[in-house]
Amino acid sequence: MQIIQSIEELRSIIREWRKEGLSVGLVPTMGYLHEGHKSLIVKAVSENDKVVVSDFVNPTQFGVNEDLSSYPRDIDRDAALCQEAGASLIFHPQAQEMYSKDHCTFVDMDSLTKGLCGKTRPTHFRGVCTVVSKLFHIVTPDRAYFGEKDAQQLAVIRRMARDLNFDITIVGCPIVREADGLAMSSRNTYLSGEERKAALILHKSLMLVEEMMKAGEQDAAVIEEAIVRSMKTEPLAEIDYVEIVDAETLEPAAKIDRPVLTATAVYIGSTRLIDNFSFQPQTF
Ligand code: PAF
């Protein structure tokens, strides 16, 4: 399996695939791959003739005080995982290949990106939309695969693909969890042993939400209060946000009378983790 660094080289390979009438799937990643990424690649392999995994720590989606320089990287380990999952190639460009020195064009969005993670990461989704648009133009995939763990990102990318008429099917894939419930994330590697245990509070609190919603609780404020109380039982956890929102518009939902997303971001020590739970009421 090849690791390609140049956009031109990748384009010429894709042109050859297209001449043969092959379909192409794209799995965009920032590397340091885990079983969650692997599940995206395996799904992409089952639905496309060729699968490109992009492995690029995108600088434009990190804020000034965020973890760009310390973000974990290991291309050899990533290549082994991609090979095992059946990917056709890895696109692993340098930052200067993706962004020329005088790069000044960005893709931004008026709604969907202001709440949830956008509140504390105001430039994050502009960076995500920009790099994903670039990858869409470079790879021209038939389908692109994103994890549901980043539920806001998935909603943002679906909307961007619709609004900008990308002829690409956006495929959302279920959250993959460790055996004890922690959602898989490249950032889990930052956690100490004690923090790793404390991080279980996210899933535990979201399970409480599931229980309440399934039991018919309709008042979002009551559920939000319960989840905050649950999170506060863990001394190492500091809540960034806990919100119940409409699954499509990401606007706050006062009542559980339509598909909703309960999304949370929590600091465990200095590591910010996100997780969520999607729910569709029976009567909807
Ligand atoms: O989800 C990620 O890893 C990144 O935000 C993405 C979609 C690869 C863009 O850099």
Please characterize this protein's 3D structure.
This protein is α/β, with parallel strands linked by helices and 284 residues long. It folds into 2 domains: 2-173, 3-Layer(aba) Sandwich (Rossmann fold); 186-276, Pantoate-beta-alanine ligase, C-terminal domain (Pantoate--beta-alanine Ligase, Chain: A,domain 2, 2-Layer Sandwich), CATH 3.30.1300. It is built from 10 helices and 9 strands. The protein has helices at residues 7-19, 35-47, 75-85, 95-98, 117-120, 124-139, 151-163, 193-198, 200-214, 220-231, and strands spanning 2-4, 24-29, 50-55, 89-91, 143-147, 169-173, 237-246, 260-268, 271-279. It has a 6-stranded parallel sheet, sandwiched between helices. Helix 6 crosses helix 7 (151-163) and helix 9 runs antiparallel to helix 10 (220-231). It is globular. It starts with a strand and ends in a 5-residue tail after the last strand. The relative contact order is 0.13. The model has no long low-confidence stretch (mean pLDDT 97).
CATH class of the largest domain: Alpha Beta
Mean pLDDT equals 97
Question: Which small molecules are bound?
Answer: pantoate
Which CATH architecture of the largest domain is right?
3-Layer(aba) Sandwich
In short:
This protein is α/β, with parallel strands linked by helices and 284 residues long. The protein is built from 10 helices and 9 strands. The protein folds into 2 domains: 2-173, HUPs (Rossmann fold), CATH 3.40.50.620; 186-276, Pantoate--beta-alanine Ligase, Chain: A,domain 2, CATH 3.30.1300.
